[in-house]
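#lab-general

N.A. 3:47 PM
ok so I finally got the sequence cleaned up, no stray characters, all 127 residues accounted for. can someone with queue access submit it? mine expired

B.Y. 3:52 PM
send it over

N.A. 3:53 PM
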Amino acid sequence: QVQLVESGGGLVQPGGSLRLSCAASGFSLDNYAVGWFRQAPGKEREGVSCTSSNDGLTYYVDSVKGRFTISSDNAKNSVYLQINSLMPDDTAVYYCAAAWGPCISATYHKPRSYDYWGQGTQVTVSS
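B.Y. 4:20 PM
back already:
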C-alpha cells in the first residue's frame, strides 16, 4: 500500500524551528519528486518546496527561501523540511506529496502535479 506519513509538527513560539518528516512506505522515493505543501485555515493549499532524488535539485517558493530547507534520506525513504525563524503566518497543516519524475520548476508548487499525499501535520506558531 502506497503511503506517505508526515510527522514533526507541533506548537512552537515565533522564532523557533521545526523539522518535519515525510516517510514513504509501499514504494521507493527514488525517481520521485517530493513536494511540501501547506494549507492555512480558509486558504488554498500552497506548495512551498520540492526535491527529487534523481537529479538532486531543490526548489523553494520565494516566500520561504532562506528559512525552509528540504532534504532527503534515501536509506530511510524519507524527505524532511527544516523550518527556521517560524512566524505566525507559517501556521498551517503541512503535507508532503509525491509524483513520478523530477521536480518541474513551473509546476512543482501545484497540487495537481502530485499523485500521492500524506495526511498532514499541524504546525502552529504562537506565543
